[in-house]
Design brief:
The protein is an alpha/beta fold. Helices cover 29% and strands 23% of the residues. It contains 12 helices and 18 strands. The strands form 4 sheets. Strands 5-4-1-6-8-7-9 form a 7-stranded mixed β-sheet, sandwiched between helices. Strands 10, 11, 14, 15, 16, 17 and 18 form a 7-stranded mixed β-sheet that branches. Strands 2-3 form a two-stranded antiparallel ribbon. Helix 2 runs antiparallel to helix 4 and helix 7 packs across helix 12. It is elongated. The two termini are 43 Å apart.
């Protein structure tokens, strides 16, 4: 069976107040992101209320046969126009839906069913994230003629199989309101940046206890510019992954670890831990996220030039004691770096001043100064 894809983009976006297909996620609109995700499928359709309203959209647009009848009308028109025997439906306000999930759902589409519908890990049915065969068209037409446009009611009339999306369930979240858009695209983020071997990992490790004791749920993301070993070499999960498995998972009653072979951006990693209050990033010196810069012990080594979003410095103890704002003489070897740090007019902490630095971070968090929008993956360095 050949599966096409239809992106449902004919809604009126009343609760959002503007066209959801044109909302931005990174540097792409929601629609552009989905088009890119499904660009290699045998047929890609875009459902619109009226073609005249979308003259600039790339791709094959399909106009509603039953205008003003909601997403069922868009799906109906796409099935009628498609050359494929079944279509994967994806609403434009679910911008994170992936080809991986689609492929898993394809496997569930047997001859005995009319549709396969996604169910998130919390048990919620997502009727607009599903595969629908042309056999659904008669039931759709009856309901559209009767003025009954509810997709949940349609499912009762079809032979439906549900598919629970467990890993990656967060990709099913839809965006209907400005508040939901804000939650999707804005997080509290703080990067700990510095030159190689400056002590970034150790600093983050020491910050986490105080932040969590304050009640924050903290998640950490580290960007590695090289290929990394996802587990201790020789362990079972590492052996499975190295043998070529697309994913390797291990879990117990309190935690789990997942390694997948697929490209992912920091913005998507944020969504893997949607309940986190604060993300600490290790590295990311080329991004625009709020940052703390930690310096190595070499006093002749300058701070990172042009670092964006610097909120504070963390210095070796000797330099902290003799550097800018301190009584002791810094000595000529500290002069240039001390002056450059002083010119930044940001707080300076010693590596052992963890309690003070933690209090500073909490103050920034509570003031909303760590809220940052996602950036494209080029900044993950």
């Amino acid at each position: 069976m050949e599966f096409g894809t239809v992106i449902l983009a004919g809604g009126k976006s009343r609760r959002m107040g503007k066209d959801k297909a044109e909302l931005m996620f990174g540097k792409k609109t929601f629609l552009e992101k989905l088009i890119q995700e499904f660009r290699e499928c045998p047929e890609l359709l875009i459902s619109v209320a009226a073609k005249k309203d979308r003259p600039d959209w790339a791709g094959r647009t399909v106009e509603d046969v039953y205008p003003g009848c909601g997403p069922m009308a868009g799906l109906h028109a796409a099935l009628k126009a498609s050359r494929c025997s079944a279509l994967l439906a994806v609403p434009c306000d679910v911008p994170l839906f992936s080809q991986k999930i689609a492929e898993q759902m394809y496997e569930e589409c047997s001859p005995e069913v009319d549709a396969v519908v996604a169910v998130s890990a919390d048990g919620r049915i997502h009727p607009l994230c599903g595969i629908y065969k042309k056999s659904c068209v008669p039931a759709m037409e009856r309901r559209l003629e009767q003025g009954n446009y509810r997709m949940q009611e349609l499912l009762k009339e079809l032979r439906v199989k549900t598919y629970q999306v467990k890993t990656g369930s967060w990709r099913l979240q839809n965006v209907n309101t400005p508040e939901e858009l804000e939650r999707l695209t804005v997080q509290s983020v703080l990067a700990v940046s510095g030159w190689k071997n400056a002590g970034k990992t150790t600093l983050i490790e020491r910050l986490i206890p105080g932040l969590t004791e304050s009640g924050l749920r903290v998640a950490v993301i580290k960007h590695d510019g090289h290929s990394f070993e996802p587990d201790v070499p020789g362990t079972d999960s590492s052996r499975f992954f190295q043998a070529g498995a697309c994913a390797s998972m291990v879990y117990d009653g309190a935690k789990y670890a997942l390694t997948r072979r697929e490209k992912v951006s920091a913005e998507e990693l944020f969504l893997l831990s949607p309940d986190a209050d604060l993300f600490l990033l290790e590295g990311f010196k080329e991004s625009g996220y709020p940052k703390i810069e930690i310096l190595r012990a070499n006093p002749k080594e300058p701070p990172i030039p042009g670092l964006k979003g610097r909120l504070a410095y963390v210095l070796p103890e000797k330099e902290r004691e003799t550097g800018p704002g301190k009584a002791g003489p810094g000595g000529p070897e500290y002069g240039r770096r001390a002056e450059e740090i002083k010119d930044q007019e940001v707080p300076v902490f010693g590596r052992e001043e963890i309690r003070e630095l933690t209090a500073f971070i909490l103050e920034l968090y509570e003031a909303g100064k760590l809220r940052a929008r996602f950036e494209p993956e080029e900044g993950e360095k």
